[in-house]
Amino acid sequence: MRIRTTATAAATAVVASGALILSAPAAPAATAGPGSLDPGAPGPVVSEALVNGGKDIVLGTTAPRTVTVSVTASHPSGIETGWLMLWHGKDQEEGLEAVLLPNEDAATCRAASVTTSTCSLTITVDPRADLYKNSLAGTWHVLAGARAKDGSLTSSDFFTTARVQRLSKLTVDAAPEPVKKGGTITVTGKLSRANWEDHKYHGYAGQAVKLQFRKKTGSTYTTIKTIRTNSTGNLRTTVKASVDGYWRYGFAGTSTTPAVTTAGDFVDVK
After folding, report:
1. What's the pLDDT tens digit per position in 204-244?
2. Which of 1, 39, 114, 168 has its CB 3.0 to 4.6 Å from that of 260, i.e. a possible disulfide?
3. Percent helix, strand and coil across the chain, each rounded to 5?
4. CA distance 45 to 36
């Protein structure tokens, strides 16, 4: 298991007894008195934990990527801070495979009202340091929590989920160009995706890919057929030429790999 050691005041990762324990700092004791909340009052309520604006985090083989994460919470006393991190594994008792921690020591919180605030942080994901095996692609758990101004806090290891995916690439080549009307066009291409273990791109085998066509004078693409990539991720099919237009391939994506569509390759029909 690889763990980045970036520290954060709101949330820390501690390795103990072979398991990764995620914890928030101890909250200061709430004091009773005129105008203060009862120390036994409920903690803040986290209403939303947002990772990368709700979009999947997609990583290639080398370039790190920094995304914004945020926690929205409310409490009668107001919100002092919030925290969020991503982790991969079954649960804390069985140990975690990987964890992604915030870059900042403290969140930046903006109040929407006296009781509600959204606290933001950033997380940098480095495929060479954090994503050390391909099985880390897919669903990650999101730990989210908040601390109220009265010192009470709340935190959930399984607040929501987010996806971290292996970057996909897709090519297309329609030939010959030009072609006689009624002639045969061969459309080739390749679907590949990032391999986080050797930091190269390899063909994505057995995947359904749509061949689409748009007339030169048209504005929308129509799916002509669906074919599958071979064992090395390559695509090859033939169609009859009828009018000038653009040919492209489109891949809908999987839980571990994002959707990708090529630009159109123009074929002049004589």
Report:
1. 999 999 999 999 999 999 999 999 999 999 999 999 999 99
2. 168
3. 0, 55, 45
4. 18
**Could you tell me which of 77, 74, 70, 148 has the C-alpha nearest to residue 117?**
74
Cα 186 to Cα 58, 231, 234, 235, distances in angstroms? 31, 19, 13, 10
Phi, psi of 54 (to 5 degrees): 85, 0
- Res 91: pLDDT: 76
Token pair 């980045």 is found at 4
Q: Is the dihedral of CA 195, 67, 94, 160 positive or negative?
A: negative
Residue in this structure with the two tokens 């298991």, named with its chain if needed: 1
> Taking a C-beta distance cutoff of 8 angstroms, is the pair 117, 75 a contact?
no
pLDDT in tens, 24-73: 443 333 333 223 345 566 899 999 999 999 999 999 999 999 999 999 99
Dihedral sign (CA 151, 103, 123, 199): negative
Q: Which stretches does DSSP call E strand in 57-199?
A: 57-59, 65-74, 79-89, 96-100, 108-111, 116-125, 138-148, 153-166, 168-175, 184-195
